[in-house]
Amino acid sequence: MRNGIAIAGTVMVDEIKSVKGYPAKSELTTIEQMKRSMGGAVSNCSLSLAHIDPDLPIEIIAYVGEDEKGQYVYEGFSKYENIDLSKVKFTGDTPFTDVIFDEIDKTRTFYTYKGNSTAFNEDAFPLTEIKAKILHVAYVLLLDALDKEDEEYGTKLAKLLHHAQKEGIQTSIDIVSENKDRYEKVVPPALKYTNYCIVNEYEAGKSTGIELREQDDSLIGSNIKEALTTMKRMGVQDWVVIHAPEASFGYNGQTFYSLPSLLIDKNRIKGTVGAGDAYAAGILYSAEKGNSLYESMKIATASAASSLLEEDSASGVKDIHTLKGMYDNWEKREEIAFL
Known about the structure:
- This protein is of the alpha/beta class.
- The chain has a single domain, classed as UDP-N-acetylmuramoyl-L-alanine:D-glutamate ligase (3-Layer(aba) Sandwich).
- About 30% of the residues lie in helices and about 25% in strands.
- It is built from 10 helices and 16 strands.
- It has helices at about 40-50, 70-80, 145, 155-165, 185-190, 200-210, 220-235, 275-290, 295-305, 320-330; strands at about 5-10, 10-20, 30-40, 60-65, 85, 90, 95-100, 110-115, 135-140, 150, 155, 170-175, 195-200, 240-245, 245-250, 255-260.
- The strands form 3 sheets. Strands 1, 4, 5, 6, 9, 12, 13, 14, 15 and 16 form a 10-stranded mixed beta sheet that branches.
- α1 (about 40-50) crosses α8 and α6 crosses α7 (about 220-235).
- The radius of gyration is 19 Å and the shape is globular.
- The termini are far apart.
- About 45% of the residues are buried.
């Protein structure tokens, strides 16, 4: 019987630099403080899951660089007894991201070096050796080799996901937020072989061609249902979940759900790096345990909120019992009507 979660994709190092206000082009700003942490979808999701449940079996499928940064992330994973590193391969340079965190408006901007992630392909996946119930691959649009075209399946990733499902593994994907127009070509093929699609409102909008924010940046609630329905129609077999700072929205093919985010004082927010992955970890954990979509969204919302309480991507994420209490007892934002 399968159990646990396998996380595959990008492993990188986040070099977090805090500034008080982002400069205009050709202008200078002072770096107030610097901090290094493990980053990328694999690090963020795996460590969040390990914090949620230290007994949950977690398998990592990734490339780690043959350099100091690679040793840093490998040692970081090794601190967790429930993380299986047997499928990790050392090769090339470790990807890294300079994360510029604006202390004033609490936003972050990313400058990424892809390193060995460009070579991460289907050969990295020993599907017959995976014991996990769910395989989560991220991020679509950032895994160059898997985003390549495939004549039969559309993309190499779609082919991989199909083969994983044939092995009895449930599949999940997340997408990176990029300012290019590749979404409608690269994303739909993967959705055909996806059980759980967990994305933010920008990624959902770009993937479906449906505007989900007004020019004033407010959510277009009336379009959320259409985006959920469209992604489900594209082939997602179980759950489509769209998360935004204000709320999250889910659809399981029968029922639509809308849950407001937890209301956190801005003074308590130390960083927003990895909040989306912390949300995904909450969904994946709950799905692995057989919870309903509604209950899973509650756990995911609390997981994302708790991640904001620390500067890095995962150390703020709480255990499952704390997360359940957080959503039930913390103040929430106003509900967003979207039906």
